[in-house]
């Protein structure tokens, strides 16, 4: 009978099949979570640039005025140690604020990150193919790490052409596979499953950390305000401009006092 000719799978073959299915499922999950993390990081960087170009620029202006005021106070009271120290502290703060705002102003990157769906799809497929945690030896992991870093840069820059080129480069680059037979393949699959799960845990930890950051919380407040028809950053700028006016008046008074007017 034909049924007698059907070969029963060995326990190793059955386990290999189960592990392959498990790996395929978590590979999809990994690609999705890598996309989530990379998107979140790009959104935060874009929001930070927007913040620094608007609110940060006003803070830099205010900090510069406060430094000038503190320095004027220090000149009026040359023997006051606290006044001298405060002048140094405010000057350091002004320098740091100006540097941060200047870097944001000089950046040519956009203040928002809204990747199209085709870019996201390409990222997912590349992550499933070349993710470092699918490697089974250090040499392969190093190569995958380098390519995955390029994938992240291209995605966050919105460079679809570069992603396509990385895809082509990968398709035509042979991967070395050591060992033959079901036993060796099963070991490789089991290791890949473990590596992917470790990476998933690391991604979740990183996302939680980013969600806890002040920058993320501010970004979410800005989005919530936008849904209410408010521009929270513009409101912050308006408040800072009022403080700047007050600081200018205080500096003018000190300057007049110094000149004996």
Q: Would you give an account of this structure?
A:
The mean pLDDT is 86. The radius of gyration is 28 Å and the shape is elongated. The longest helix is centred in the first third of the chain and has 66 residues, at 11-76. The protein has 261 residues and is mainly α. It has one domain (11-173, 183-256). The protein has 8 helices and no strands. The chain has helices at residues 11-76, 81-106, 117-130, 138-156, 160-171, 181-212, 214-227, 232-259.
Rg result: 28 Å
Number of helices: 8
Number of self-contained structural domains:
1
| Percent of residues in β-strands | under 5%
Report mean pLDDT, rounded to a whole number: 86
Q: Main β-sheet, in a few words?
A: none
Summary, kept brief:
With about 260 residues, the protein is an all-alpha fold. It is built from eight helices and no strands.
Comma- or semicolon-separated keywords:
mainly alpha; elongated; 261 residues; 8 helices
Helices and strands in order:
Layout: H1 11-76, H2 81-106, H3 117-130, H4 138-156, H5 160-171, H6 181-212, H7 214-227, H8 232-259
Helix pairs in contact: 1-2, 1-3, 1-6, 1-8, 3-4, 3-5, 4-5
């Amino acid at each position: 009978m034909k049924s007698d000719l059907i070969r029963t799978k060995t326990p190793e073959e059955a386990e290999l099949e189960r592990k392959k299915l498990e790996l395929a499922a978590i590979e999809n999950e990994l690609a999705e979570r890598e996309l989530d993390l990379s998107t979140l990081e790009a959104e935060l960087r874009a929001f930070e640039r927007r913040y620094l170009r608007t609110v940060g620029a006003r803070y830099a202006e205010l900090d510069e005025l406060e430094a000038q005021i503190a320095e004027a106070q220090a000149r009026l009271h040359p023997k006051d140690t606290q006044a001298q120290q405060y002048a140094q502290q405010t000057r350091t703060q002004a320098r740091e604020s100006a540097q941060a705002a200047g870097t944001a102003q000089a950046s040519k990157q956009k203040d928002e990150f809204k990747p199209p769906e085709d870019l996201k799809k390409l990222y997912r497929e590349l992550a499933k193919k070349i993710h470092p945690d699918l490697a089974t030896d250090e040499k392969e992991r190093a190569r995958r790490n380098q390519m995955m870093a390029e994938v992240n840069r291209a995605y966050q820059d919105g460079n679809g052409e570069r992603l396509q080129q990385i895809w082509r480069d990968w398709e035509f680059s042979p991967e070395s596979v050591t060992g033959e037979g079901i036993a060796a393949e099963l070991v490789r699959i089991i290791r890949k499953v473990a590596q992917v799960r470790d990476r998933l845990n690391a991604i979740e930890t990183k996302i939680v950390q980013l969600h806890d950051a002040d920058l993320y919380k501010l970004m979410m407040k800005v989005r919530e305000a936008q849904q209410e028809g408010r521009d929270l950053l513009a409101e912050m700028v308006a408040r800072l401009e009022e403080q700047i006016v007050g600081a200018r008046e205080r500096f003018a008074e000190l300057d007049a006092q110094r000149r004996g007017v």
